[in-house]
Specification:
The mean pLDDT is about 80. The chain is an all-alpha fold. The protein has one domain. Helix 3 packs across helix 6. The protein starts with a helix and ends with a helix. The chain is about 75% helix and about 0% strand. The chain contains six helices and no strands. Keywords: Membrane, Transmembrane, Transmembrane helix. InterPro entries: O2_lipid_transport_reg.
């Protein structure tokens, strides 16, 4: 009974091990049954998320919002700022 509890705790604490998780993050072997197109979607959603957050963090720093209005009307700004669903895609994939 006690060994089983210790084993369960050990397995639980392994989830937080930097060495084990670091090895899993940098492994080079591809996973079986991997779809490369999903990797592409994951990459673009990651980039979109980073850029959108950079833009969102920059906007409150603008002192004159009238000065920002032309930039907000630009098509790329609309795509970045209206990309709420991309965060969901990023977390689901």
């Amino acid at each position: 009974m006690e060994r089983r509890i210790l084993r369960e705790w050990r397995d639980y604490l392994k989830c937080f091990c930097l060495v084990t998780n670091g090895r899993l993050l940098v492994r080079n072997s591809p996973a079986k049954n991997r779809l490369e197109s999903i990797d592409g979607i994951r990459f673009f959603s990651f980039c979109w998320t980073v850029v959108a957050h950079c833009v969102a963090l920059y906007l409150p720093a603008a002192k004159n919002l009238e000065e920002m209005a032309p930039y907000l009307q630009h098509r790329m700004a609309q795509i970045l700022l209206k990309g709420d669903f991309i965060i969901d895609i990023f977390f689901v994939i």
